[in-house]
Amino acid sequence: AMVVCFYLQIGFSIGIMCAIPTNILTDDWRTEVAVPTLLTLTILPILLFDVRESPRYLLAKGMTGESFAELTHIGEKNGKKLPSNSFIAPMRSTERGKVYGYFDLFRYSPVRSYTINLCLQWFCIGVVYYGLTLASSQFAGTVHTNLFLSAFAE
């Protein structure tokens, strides 16, 4: 999921960066919408064909064969050969059938503190990002330059 979110964010930033030169070069709003949209949609094949299922998720669901296949695929892409199936045996003996929910994030003290910490960080980062976006028109430089630089930094 993290990779998918990363790819979606990259597409959004590329779309904004392409909208600025398009806005400067043309006065047609349709072109201003079409160019970033078409360039952003080029990310879609990566999302559909390159993002694979997490081996950890597959293992948690009890699909050890599929998990090993995903690990093998990742190893091939990285130019590494995985060891034999010897590390799959301990994985099979792990607890199965237990279903976890959102309330389990608050049940145990260490996990609770991590969850609250991450939620607060997420909130603060969102507020700062929102504030910088609103204040970008007040920065030195043109609106186009400020928006392009903020999209590039993103």
Distance between the termini: 19 Å
Count of alpha/pi helices? 8
What helical percentage do the residues reach?
Answer: 55-70%
Strand element count? 0
Q: Give the count of structural domains.
A: 3
Look at the helices and sheets and give the structural class: mainly alpha
Major beta-sheet overview: none
Radius of gyration: 22 Å
Average pLDDT: 77
Shape: flat
**Unreliable stretches, pLDDT < 50, 5 or more residues?**
none
**Order of H and E elements:** HHHHHHHH
Q: Could you tell me the strand content as a percent range?
A: under 5%
Structure description:
This protein is mostly helical and 154 residues long. The protein folds into three domains: 1-51; 54-99; 102-141. 68% of the residues lie in helices and 0% in strands. It contains eight helices and no strands. It has helices at 2-25, 29-40, 44-49, 55-60, 64-77, 88-92, 109-135, 143-153. It is flat and about 60 Å long.
Break the fold down into its secondary structure elements and pairings.
Elements: H1 2-25, H2 29-40, H3 44-49, H4 55-60, H5 64-77, H6 88-92, H7 109-135, H8 143-153
Transmembrane segments: 6-26, 33-49, 114-132
Keywords: Membrane, Transmembrane, Transmembrane helix
GO molecular function, one term: transmembrane transporter activity
Question: What's the short story on this structure?
Answer:
This protein has 154 residues and is mainly α. 68% of the residues lie in helices and 0% in strands.
